[in-house]
Amino acid sequence: MNEFASLVASQLRTDLRSLPGQARRRFSAAGQAARAGTIGELRAAARRRVPRVVFDYVDGAAGDEVTAAANVAALRALELHPRVLAGVSEVDLSTSVLGQPVSLPLLGAPMGLTGLLHPAGEVALGRALAAAGTISVLAAMASCPIEEVAAAVSGPVWFQMYIWRDRGLVAEMLQRAWAAGMPVLVVTVDVPCAGNRDRDRRNGFSVPPRVTARALAGGLAHPGWSYRFTRHPRISWGNLPGDGGQDAATLSAQTNRQFDPAATWDDLRWFRDRWDGQLVVKGVMRKEDALRAVRLGADGIAVSNHGGRQLDGAPAAIRALPAVADAVGGDAEVYVDGGIRRGADIVKALALGARACLAGRPLAYGLGAAGEEGARRAVEILRAELRTALTLAGCPSVRAVDSSWVTCCASAAPGRT
């Protein structure tokens, strides 16, 4: 056997021995997530892994989804201005939020019902973010109870709450969050009523889910998801009282009736008076609203249009950020939520005045693609892209980013991923 034939034979033997492991890595959910190089690729993996009704619940938005698309497009419309020969051999991604050190300026946005994507739900998201050295925000309408998440996550967890009519229920949840060691309350103020989610309506989405022929067909087409779902169903809200015998329409309607369109600034004062920790007000898009929230005791302002899931036609969150940041100044920290899909998006948000960004859908795509491993991959992707963007821009630290690093260009192609 000549030298070339010997080389080929050796390679074939090695390939055959490694074939089972390669097959597992190639076709398993974890393997596909590990190969994903962008959040868009994780989104595609999640779309393959979960039924359409579940994917659309996470991916969809209100009305024609104009605002959801604008969140992404407006970030793409910003140009980064690099400095050359800047001697950036190392990049420091670390910062702090409300006095808590974090390894990168990215927090997990509050999301409801992530247990529909994967039974580990908010536990998996919290663990993935804690492993990355940053913070998750647990939603009031999460699939996993407050106490379960707090016990399972080693790092800090913030708690998010709405302004609901039943103040007894709200007070009880605040007490539970405080007792569980959650130091920061995030009050979401942009949901006086539920938005019109056309995808959910067309899909017949409800909580708990209604078993229909279409739902059964979706489950059969996604056997891995169905296996996990039937073994560990997360079919309702983990922190809200409910009778398991209630039908889906009744339970969903009762929950929607908790939202209060008559809520005023006095209601925010009610939260401030009853919460001993730090307070972030989320859902602010106007500078005058931000200033009023700060005067009432807010320690942080999250500029957000709810990911486009409430008022369709609202401006992109990144467009509202500079005015809010300028108005608030150093009186409160400012964050932005909406449209983060790339590490470069984080740089742009910091340049326009954000202390950190909140991301929801990118983490949800990872969770749907491969559970906790997928969520960790989502954070890894954004961290690596952030590091690369800063290096290429000639900026040594996230704390050094200011308005000189970014300008707005005339247009950008719209997109969702």
What keyword list fits this structure?
eight-stranded parallel sheet, two-stranded antiparallel ribbon, TIM Barrel, 12 strands, 417 residues, disordered C terminus, 17 helices, alpha/beta
What this model shows, in words?
The protein is α/β, with parallel strands linked by helices and 417 residues long. It has a single domain (31-199, 253-407), classed as Alpha-Beta Barrel (TIM Barrel). It has helices spanning 3-27, 29-35, 39-49, 52-59, 66-76, 121-131, 146-152, 167-179, 198-203, 213-220, 223-231, 248-256, 265-274, 287-295, 317-328, 343-351, 361-393; strands at residues 78-80, 95-97, 100-102, 106-108, 136-138, 157-162, 184-188, 278-284, 300-304, 333-337, 356-359, 406-408. The strands form 3 sheets. An 8-stranded parallel beta sheet has the order 4-11-10-9-8-7-6-5. The chain has a two-stranded antiparallel sheet with strand order 1-12. Helix 7 links the parallel strand 5 (136-138) and strand 6. Helix 14 packs across helix 15.
Question: What's the topology here?
Answer:
Blueprint (H helix, E strand, L loop, with lengths): L2 H25 L1 H7 L3 H11 L2 H8 L6 H11 L1 E3 L14 E3 L2 E3 L3 E3 L12 H11 L4 E3 L7 H7 L4 E6 L4 H13 L4 E5 L9 H6 L9 H8 L2 H9 L16 H9 L8 H10 L3 E7 L2 H9 L4 E5 L12 H12 L4 E5 L5 H9 L4 E4 L1 H33 L12 E3 L9
Parallel strand pairs: 4-11, 5-6, 6-7, 7-8, 8-9, 9-10, 10-11
Antiparallel strand pairs: 1-12, 2-3
Helix pairs in contact: 1-2, 2-17, 3-17, 6-7, 6-17, 14-15, 16-17
